[in-house]
UniProtKB/TrEMBL annotation:
<dbReference type="GO" id="GO:0043111">
    <property type="term" value="P:replication fork arrest"/>
</dbReference>
<dbReference type="Pfam" id="PF04821">
    <property type="entry name" value="TIMELESS"/>
</dbReference>
<keyword id="KW-0131">Cell cycle</keyword>
<protein>
    <submittedName>
        <fullName>TIM protein</fullName>
    </submittedName>
</protein>
<dbReference type="GO" id="GO:0000076">
    <property type="term" value="P:DNA replication checkpoint signaling"/>
</dbReference>
<dbReference type="GO" id="GO:0006281">
    <property type="term" value="P:DNA repair"/>
</dbReference>
<keyword id="KW-0539">Nucleus</keyword>
<feature type="domain" description="Timeless N-terminal">
    <location>
        <begin position="18"/>
        <end position="158"/>
    </location>
</feature>
<dbReference type="GO" id="GO:0031298">
    <property type="term" value="C:replication fork protection complex"/>
</dbReference>
<dbReference type="GO" id="GO:0003677">
    <property type="term" value="F:DNA binding"/>
</dbReference>
<dbReference type="InterPro" id="IPR044998">
    <property type="entry name" value="Timeless"/>
</dbReference>
<dbReference type="InterPro" id="IPR006906">
    <property type="entry name" value="Timeless_N"/>
</dbReference>
Length: 200
């Protein structure tokens, strides 16, 4: 029974890509017979008395599934299930898929998927952490290469005792070292006197 699925995908592959309008009645019957044969092979119940193998050894059902996978039959079943023009085979394909998962419990399948997802998630997390550390190292290297510029902002100070306009204290925007040379005219433009009016 294990060798028989190798022949079936060749027959299905020759028939499936054909347009359903060009397909002959014999081709439709052949596709249906192949799907029914696969269903019947998977439908055979397990016999524990015959399958006395070592613990962890693959059962006959598992070996049939592996042969179907190696031959490419599972890809053809996915094609038949998803193709819009092949909807007439949907129930056959659904029955075959349910028989494929006959010995599996939903909890085992879910746990298997979570285990793989957790391993992939851990690998992705390690990869992201490595990329983050590399980016931080590049930022530090760029910060060390950047020339340091002196800020021209010296701060703002309130000069108590000196009154500005409106009886408010003067706000001084220069550095404290410039405070000795402070005058109210600081920052104002000098008025230019024409040369002919210069004092002699």
């Amino acid at each position: 029974a294990v060798g028989s699925p190798w022949v079936l995908p060749g027959a299905l592959t020759a028939l499936s890509p054909q347009d359903w309008e060009q397909r002959q009645e014999e081709d439709t019957l052949l596709i249906e017979r192949i799907l029914l044969l696969v269903r019947n092979v998977l439908h055979v119940p397990p016999d524990p008395a015959e399958e006395q193998g070592v613990d962890g050894d693959a059962s006959v059902h598992d070996r049939v599934l592996w042969a179907l996978h190696i031959s490419g039959m599972d890809d053809l079943l996915k094609f038949l299930a998803s193709a819009q023009a092949e909807q007439q085979w949907a129930l056959h394909v659904l029955e075959i898929i349910s028989l494929m998962f006959r010995d599996q419990s939903p909890e085992e399948l879910a746990a298997l998927g979570q285990g793989q997802a957790a391993a992939e998630h851990g690998e992705d997390t390690r990869e992201l952490e490595t990329l983050r550390e590399r980016e931080l190292a590049e930022r530090r290297a760029r910060a060390l290469q950047r020339p340091s510029r002196h800020s021209r902002f010296g701060g703002s100070y309130v000069l108590q005792g000196l009154k500005a306009i409106g009886d408010r204290d003067v706000v001084f925007h220069k550095g404290l070292h410039n405070l000795k040379s402070y005058s109210h005219d600081l920052g104002k433009e000098l008025r230019r006197v024409p040369r002919r009016r210069w004092a002699a």
